[in-house]
């Protein structure tokens, strides 16, 4: 009795996948279509028999226990796997279409914060596949059309009877004359070489809605690549990349701005005009404002996508402490401290009451 494991070149502990892989490799080398030599055909029969036994759990168990060799050509359930190894599952495939749908395309464009907030329109130039203007997608020269393949009679495949261990088998393969299309282009279009499409640069108008942000994609149906044979075009996706603003920081629909004020202005209070996306805005800094205090300007933030309303603009106050003082300035500050009953070097440790921590949490950490 032949050693089926040795025949396939695998160990006794080989998995089902390993057995199938080894069989397919040997079968492709030994199949009668490749090697018509009688000795090779006999070897192919042995390999097929070994696979039939080892690929079936019950047959393999009996074989390992020294049972029947399962000789002959009783392929049983293993026959479909054998056919898969050569013919990809068997069955008629028919001619494959020349016309196929095109692929989607992706292009990224940069927008500034103002454009992202209020929306805009852009002209973009893309290089893509378009229908060939010469043949209008047929791939043929001078108004001609593909002709039925004489080799396969339009079926896109040819059939052949081959001898195997189970007798004569009818096989189907893509027609070599027409590459499986079932038709041939005798005179290809010189512009597209029979593809039915050519590369071309085109300008497209893109409407960018208010409220977009980095990562948002605008889908433009039918503006992607035209398919082979002049097939329907895919979609074009325009992906938004938002540019960094000079002093405004975006957090979703909220805008943040840091505003530096002098120690005197923070103590006495003041009104400061700042430039927002809507133009000049007056910011009222109340007397005694502390560093880190947020001032909320309603509805001056980003537009909410597909809603139209606006988020808020939050001004974060940063009190500037002088780093260099003249002798006169130092004297004045010490007198000021004495007038308030404070010591010049006075400081206190503050507990986690949530004040400073809540103000700082999440600010500019994006």
Structure report:
It contains nine helices and 15 strands. With 366 residues, the chain is of the alpha+beta class. α2 (16-30) runs antiparallel to α3 (38-54). 23% of the residues lie in helices and 28% in strands. It has helices at 4-8, 16-30, 38-54, 57-64, 79-87, 113-118, 263-268, 327-339, 355-360; strands at residues 105-111, 120-131, 147-148, 157-164, 167-174, 183-184, 197-208, 217-220, 236-242, 248-251, 254-262, 270-276, 279-285, 294-297, 313-320. Residues 68-92 and 355-366 have low confidence and may be disordered. It folds into four domains: 4-87, DnaJ domain (Helix Hairpins); 105-127 and 197-242, HSP40/DNAj peptide-binding domain (Sandwich); 147-184, no CATH class; 248-360, Urease metallochaperone UreE, N-terminal domain (HSP40/DNAj peptide-binding domain, Sandwich), CATH 2.60.260. The radius of gyration is 39 Å and the shape is elongated.
Compact overview of the structure:
Helices cover 23% and strands 28% of the residues.
């Amino acid at each position: 009795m032949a050693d089926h494991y040795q025949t396939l070149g695998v160990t006794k502990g080989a998995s089902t996948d390993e057995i199938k892989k080894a069989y397919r490799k040997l079968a492709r080398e030994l199949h009668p279509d490749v090697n018509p030599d009688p000795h090779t055909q006999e070897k192919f029969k042995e390999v097929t028999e070994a696979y039939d036994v080892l690929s079936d759990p019950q047959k393999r168990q009996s074989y390992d226990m020294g049972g029947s060799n399962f000789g002959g050509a009783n392929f049983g359930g293993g026959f479909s796997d054998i056919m898969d190894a050569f013919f990809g599952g068997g069955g008629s495939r028919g001619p494959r279409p020349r016309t196929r749908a095109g692929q989607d395309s992706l292009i990224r464009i940069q927008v500034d914060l103002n454009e992202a907030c209020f929306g805009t329109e852009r002209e973009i130039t893309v290089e893509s596949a378009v229908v060939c203007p010469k043949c209008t997608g047929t791939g043929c020269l001078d108004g001609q059309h593909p002709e039925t393949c004489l080799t396969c009679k339009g079926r896109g495949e040819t059939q052949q009877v081959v001898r195997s261990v189970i007798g004569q088998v009818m096989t189907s393969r893509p027609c070599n004359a027409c590459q499986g299309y079932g038709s041939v282009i005798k005179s290809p279009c010189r512009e597209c070489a029979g593809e039915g499409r050519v590369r071309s640069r085109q300008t497209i108008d893109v409407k960018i809605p208010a409220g977009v942000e980095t990562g948002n994609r605008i889908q433009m149906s039918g503006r992607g690549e035209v398919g082979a044979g002049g097939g329907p075009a895919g979609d074009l996706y325009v992906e938004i990349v938002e540019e960094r603003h000079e002093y405004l920081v975006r957090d979703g629909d909220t805008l943040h701005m840091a505003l530096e004020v002098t120690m005197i202005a923070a103590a006495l209070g003041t009104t400061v005009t700042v430039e927002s996306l809507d133009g000049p805005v007056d910011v009222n800094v109340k007397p005694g404002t502390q560093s880190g205090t947020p001032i909320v300007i309603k509805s001056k933030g980003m537009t909410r996508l597909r809603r139209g309303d606006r988020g808020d603009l939050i001004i974060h106050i940063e009190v500037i402490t002088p780093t260099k003082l003249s002798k006169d300035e130092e004297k004045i500050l010490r007198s000021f401290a004495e007038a308030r009953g404070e010591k010049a070097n006075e400081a206190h440790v503050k507990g986690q009451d949530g004040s400073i921590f809540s103000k700082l949490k999440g600010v500019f950490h994006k």
